[in-house]
Design goal:
Order of helices and strands: HEEHHEEEEEHHEEH
Largest sheet: 4 strands, antiparallel
Structural class: alpha+beta
Strand content: 15-25%
Strand order of the largest sheet: 3-4-5-6
Length: 249
């Protein structure tokens, strides 16, 4: 096979990927045998084609060797698992859906909304104040219902001024006004109740995290918030520097 590429090219060679190849007396790479030999030939062919294209120094070369083949020589760490969250909470409303995952030193917030699209943020607990504030707000659907009722009132006023009382006897006017009034009343009646939100501020007074009692897990809201407050207090206590005593003689 052709020699390996120069050291200036950032090419992932077999000697650094797995233990299939070995080095000779002068430090050169010695091709393996068997299945490793076939992979070595594929790698060498890719390197020759890349060198003909005169790639720039330091540019990574894309080696189109199947990952399944390369995994034969890669040592995989067994027994490693991703960190499991201490608790999770899902918040669901019309304009925003979020999932909170609480870890020992951080909280992950992921979801999607009408105005922000997809998002995935991680907030360290050390910057949060363990004394949250509370606020009660209505859903955006309540405001949409009010807008429809206001639009129906404006339309009825304009039709009454422009065409008189006979205008309301026309079928299209009855249908339009009836739909606006019915949808507006349904939205305002269904979302008139305010939802509770807990807001956590930073030391600078900036609201960095808020959690609402809305969605399928409202029964677990208090438990999740209490655990979050406990973790914030413990994290800040561990992060506080030790004070040197001043009364030593």
């Amino acid at each position: 096979p052709p020699p390996p590429p120069p050291a200036t090219s950032k090419v992932c060679v077999f000697g650094r990927v797995c233990a299939c190849s070995s080095k000779g007396p002068e430090g050169e790479l010695v091709p393996p045998s068997g299945r490793g030999r076939e992979l070595w030939e594929q790698l060498s062919t890719q390197l020759v084609r890349s060198s003909k294209r005169q790639a720039e120094p330091g540019a990574a070369v894309n080696l189109a060797i199947p990952a399944k083949s390369l995994s034969l020589g890669v040592r995989r760490r067994r027994g490693t698992r991703m960190e499991e969250p201490l608790a999770t909470y899902e918040e669901s409303r019309f304009e925003l859906r979020r999932r909170f995952e609480l870890y020992p030193n951080r909280v992950r917030v992921a979801g999607r909304g009408l105005h922000v699209g997809l998002f995935d943020d991680t907030i360290p607990l050390s910057i949060l104040n363990p004394h949250p504030g509370h606020v009660w707000v209505r859903s955006a659907l309540f405001r949409y219902g009010l807008n429809l009722l206001f639009l129906a009132a404006c339309l009825a006023t304009g039709l009454g001024i422009g065409g008189g009382a006979d205008t309301f006897a026309r079928p299209w006017a009855v249908v339009v006004l009836g739909v606006l009034l019915w949808v507006g009343l349904m939205l305002t009646a269904a979302h008139i109740r305010r939802a509770e939100f807990v807001r956590f501020q930073t030391s600078a007074g900036i609201i960095a995290l808020d959690i609402g009692r809305v969605g399928p897990q409202t029964d677990e809201f208090d438990e999740f918030v209490e655990l979050l407050i406990t973790r914030i207090a413990e994290t800040k206590a561990d992060a506080e520097p030790l004070s040197w005593p001043t009364d030593l003689k």
